[in-house]
Write a structure and sequence with these properties.
heterodimer, A: mainly beta, six-stranded mixed β-sheet, B: mainly beta, Immunoglobulin-like, four-stranded antiparallel β-sheet
């Protein structure tokens, strides 16, 4: 089956510095889409980025990610972290099947300190 | 953005009792989902639901689980009877379509089975 790996459980970054969250995947499907969800404390996970196009940069709210099928990756980056970016970030894969099921990574908690 | 409301946020019950988790999906969405997240693990797909019927369910969706959305009201997940291993956070989601449509999640219901 599909799998999504997020290698960092916790990333601590100083405000204003860049942050990168890793996401790699395994799938046998050809038609795939990727999502980054962000979950702030006591709130619902909400979609941050979505991409299904290989090698195309996707941006939203200062974050960006590029799907690289050659390396099976969809890393999330931001050039300057803000205190409000402290949250839990999930990488998720949709295999494009009729069921629209998502396979999630375990999540990476980001802590931005002043 | 679109909001999915889950009631209650936390439920504590004794093993063997019945529990119903309620979800108020986004008003114009037609597809509904339940995901389960055990502490320290990733969110995992349980079931999806459309037009009054279960479309797909995972192996985590045990015989004791059932879902329904009577007369367009709450989308519910019922567990009867509950077991200790049912303790988890249950996330409801909805979407306008299938394929790679974005899922909108609720904040989750934390179920504690004692």
């Amino acid at each position: 089956g599909d799998s999504v790996t997020q290698t960092e459980g916790l990333v601590t970054v100083t405000e204003g510095l860049p942050v990168k969250l890793n996401c790699t995947y395994q799938t046998t499907y050809l038609t795939i889409a990727f999502f980054w969800y962000v979950q702030y404390l006591n709130e619902a996970p909400q979609v941050l980025l979505k991409s299904s196009t290989d090698n195309k940069r996707t941006e939203h709210q200062g974050f960006h990610a590029t799907l690289h099928k050659s390396s099976s990756s969809f890393h999330l980056q931001k050039s300057s972290a803000q205190l409000s970016d402290s949250a839990l970030y999930y990488c998720a894969l949709s295999d494009g099947s009729a069921g629209n099921k998502l396979t999630f990574g375990i999540g990476t908690r980001v802590l931005v300190r002043p | 953005g679109p909001k999915v409301l889950q009631i209650p946020s936390h439920q504590i019950i004794d093993m063997g009792q019945m529990v119903t988790l309620n979800c108020d999906p986004v008003s114009n969405h037609l597809y509904f989902y339940w995901y389960k997240q055990i502490l320290g693990q990733q969110m995992e797909f349980l079931v999806n639901f459309y037009n009054g019927k279960v479309m797909e369910k995972s192996k985590l969706f045990k015989d004791q689980f059932s879902v329904e959305r009577p007369d367009g009201s709450y989308f519910t997940l019922k567990i009867q009877p509950t077991a200790l291993e049912d303790s988890a956070v249950y996330f409801c989601a909805s979407s306008t379509g299938l394929g790679v449509n974005t899922l909108y999640f609720g904040a989750g219901t934390r179920l504690s089975v004692l």
